[in-house]
Amino acid sequence: MLCTVLIVDDSSSTRSIVRAIVRDAGVRDDRIFEATNGQEALAMFEEAWIDLVLLDINMPVMNGECFARTIRAREDLADVKLLVVTAEPSPLRHARLRQIGVEGILAKPFASEQLREAIRLCLPHAAAA
Amino acid sequence: MREMTTDALVRLTCAALERTAFLMAEPGDTPHGDPLPNAVRFSRIEYRGPERGEVLLAGSDGFVRKLAAGFLGDAPASIDSETVGADALRELSNIVAGSLVRELGGDRCPFAIGLPTACDVASLPLQPTALAILDVEGERLEVYWTRNASALFAA
């Protein structure tokens, strides 16, 4: 099974780190897309069939919470997995995100193995691709 | 709110550097050490909640190159410090601020952090609440934390 992952983060450094880890987790490089904010990420859904979104929260234009809410409001995207990767510390916000329906929240700084494991849990078939 | 010491600032910054960029750091500018290169790149981020504050990072050119190189798995010499290096420094300030407010607020952590922005030497606080100067493999990183509890009530 070919899995498609979208990395949404306003930091190009973080996108590069995360991209390398996603590749390590077994996802083909041409199946990894990037966006710098929630609005750009929403537009990507018109172009690709996304399985997993790795989502930052604090971003300009459209933040990760607003993006997650928009995705979860769309029935046609109900099977998209959302994994939050953020330095945002607020448990209240984390609780809101869980209520919205994100699969998990990983705090920065994270060990690459933590992210790989979280990706494997969300995309159990990725490593076999 | 919990208190934050310079030692704690050093500890959480070192942890962030090691985890994200595989860089080793230790308290710098010791009396017997060689002076570290000057900081030339700056990034700041604010947080708010029961109190407000700011984290500002200042790094030498070599530091931001090493940081970005560690993030990207590249050679420091191939890094454009003005663009890629500055982005890496902003992301580090984001991570350090997140770790700092988690320490300040404990499990309940009622803080929100803002967006990191590039700034210049004029933004350096004259009287930071805590300042950590780190020697990161021979390069300089300064971490300024300024607690500004009064700002919340100033309006």
Structural class of chain A: alpha/beta
Assign a percent range to the helix content of chain B. 25-40%
Query: Structural class given helices, strands, pairing of chain B?
Result: alpha+beta
Overall pLDDT confidence of chain A: 90
Order of helices and strands of chain B: HEEEHHEEEEH
| Regions with little confidence, pLDDT below 50 for 5+ residues of chain B | 151-155
Largest sheet data of chain A: 5 strands, parallel
Describe the fold and architecture.
The complex is a heterodimer of chains A (about 130) and B (about 160). Helices cover about 40% and strands about 15% of the residues of chain A. Chain A has helices spanning about 10-25, 40-45, 65-70, 90-100, 110-120, and strands spanning about 5-10, 30-35, 50-55, 80-85, 105. In chain A, strands 2-1-3-4-5 form a five-stranded parallel β-sheet. Chain B has helices at about 5-20, 60-70, 80-105, 150-155; strands at about 25, 40-50, 55-60, 110-115, 115-120, 130-135, 140-145. In chain B, a hairpin with a 2-residue loop joins strand 6 and strand 7 (about 140-145). Residues about 150-155 of chain B have low confidence and may be disordered.
